[in-house]
Amino acid sequence: MKAIFIVYDEARGDEAVEILEKHGQRGFTRWEDISGRGSADGIPHFGNHAWPAMNHAILTFVDDSIVGGILDDIKVKSEESKDLGLRAFVWQLSDIF
After folding, report:
1. pLDDT for 9-59, tens place per residue?
2. What number of other Cβ atoms are within 10 A of residue 28's Cβ?
C-alpha cells in the first residue's frame, strides 16, 4: 500500500478527485486554501494581493496496483497546463491498522 500526496492549484477544481475516482479510489482527505511555492519553477500561491492563488492538497492511501495509473493521469494533466501547478508524491507505507 502507498500514500499519495497531491498538491495542485485551486483553479484545477476537482480534477485530482476525478483521477482518483477513475481508478476506483474512493477515500481521501483534502485540504483547501493552503499556501506554498514550488521548489523549481512554481509561482507562489500565497493568497495575497501580489500572489492571489491558493493550493489544495489531497492525501490518499491506495493499493500498489493503481499507483502507476494515477501518476500517469496526473502527469498528463500537469503537462496540459504547466502554469497550474500539479504534483504528486508517493510514500511506501510500512504499518497500517
Report:
1. 999 989 999 999 999 999 999 999 999 888 777 788 898 999 889 999 999
2. 16
Which cell goes with 19? 483521477
CA distances to 4, 71, 93, 94, 95 from 15, in Å: 15, 13, 25, 29, 29
SS (HEC) of the chain: CEEEEEEEEHHHCCHHHHHHHHCCCCCCEEEEEECECCCCCCCCECCCCCCCCCEEEEEEEECHHHHHHHHHHHHHHHHHCCCCCEEEEEEECCCCC
